[in-house]
Automatic annotation (TrEMBL):
Keyword tRNA processing attached: yes
UniProt-annotated location(s): Cytoplasm
Protein name, entry field: tRNA threonylcarbamoyladenosine biosynthesis protein TsaE
GO CC, alphabetical: cytoplasm
Keywords of the record: ATP-binding, Cytoplasm, Magnesium, Metal-binding, Nucleotide-binding, tRNA processing
Lineage of source species: Bacteria, Bacillati, Bacillota, Bacilli, Bacillales
Domain of life from the UniProt record: Bacteria
Entry GO MF terms: ATP binding; metal ion binding
Gene name per UniProt: tsaE
Amino acid sequence: MKSIKFITKTEGETERLAKKLAILLRAGDVITLKGDLGAGKTTFTKGLGAGLGVKRTINSPTFTIVKTYQGELPLYHMDVYRLEGSEEDIGFDEYFYSDGISVVEWPQFIEEFLPKERLDIVITSTNEKEREITCYPIGDHFERVCEGLAR
Ligand code: ADP
Ligand code: MG
């Protein structure tokens, strides 16, 4: 499987898709979320958190880079937008090779630190409410995850 595409028509549908994904994940998994401002990256992360049993409200971590939430597994929510062009390593491996799930918004800015095996997700806005969510699995585990998501 090269990629799989989903269309959502509401914020809630995007959250539900992410919630379904959460159930298929395991400790140490890394999900990247690419998309313009307002595409739905943080909305997707909220759904993922709900699926992991996070009770606290998840919101944009723009000013902290990483926010940690406690669910059935820890959720590390990163927005690395501010690291554009810096090449700074804030200790990514501690998150990526851990007992938790990492979600990275704006992964293009830390390309060199991303693990090889991961699930890349691209969200594009086709109109005000419709989003195209394309998943690109890298590695056997994430291929299986995507097959599960399609079911
Ligand atoms: P990002 O983190 O990519 O900047 P956000 O998740 O913070 O984006 O914001 C997405 C915005 O788009 C929210 O205001 C949300 O209500 C709106 N929206 C409208 N339709 C959808 C949809 N189908 N999926 C996700 N968000 C949607
Ligand atoms: Mg965001």
